[in-house]
Design a protein that fits this description.
It comes from Pseudomonas fluorescens. InterPro entries: Integral_membrane_TerC. It is found in: Membrane. By secondary structure, the protein is mainly α. Helices cover about 85% and strands about 5% of the residues. The longest helix is centred in the middle third of the chain and has 34 residues.
Amino acid sequence: MDYLLQLAASPTAWVALATLIVMEIVLGIDNLIFISILTNKLPLHNRQRARRIGIGMALILRLGLLSTIAFIVQLTNPVIEILGHAFSWKDMILIAGGLFLLWKATTEIHHSMDPAPEDPKSATSTVTLGFAAAIGQILMLDMVFSIDSIITAVGMTEHLPIMVIAVVVSVLVMLLAADPLAKFINDNPTVVMLALGFLIMIGMTLIAEGFGAHVPKGYVYAAMAFSAAIEVLNMMSRRSRQKRVATEV
């Protein structure tokens, strides 16, 4: 109890908490984009439930990993060497997660360009399998993003209460933003392609980091912000043209 009171009275602890919350929210954007795109492929009545399950699993994984900080720190220790390059468990997890993101984003782009006709006879089995597959894929990426998130938290502060608060706050923000973001992506088809492009970039970044090439997150998010700004201008331009055509008619 005295430890918590001393922590609460420390200005440095509050600064660390604020900084870590912002970092965790930013790191959660990748996770949230993936969840939004994936759940939008499900039937309408299952989407919100799948999003909540996915974000809930992200919270459980993050808190579970926080309880094993000693183990998480060891994930950065080299365990295998290939062609003179040492790989840790973290590196291999990042590479696997990056490859999965590349595969998933490329597959979704292919389906968007050449959608397969739906077979009415197998609609029921498709819905069930689709929901289970979506949860499984969300769980896999939750694990990758959770490990990255917790290792970042461990690197920024040594106080477990600060880590726990930052993780809980960031996941609550994800929960609040999930439905509006998914609706926005669903209502604007061109945004889907942009978001899939983001996932490809994030996948490449994860693979690069797994091979030891540090990619500053600021560059990645600056590119995402610039692309999103251009897309907003395109959307405004399309709406202006639609209004002009409607007025002329």
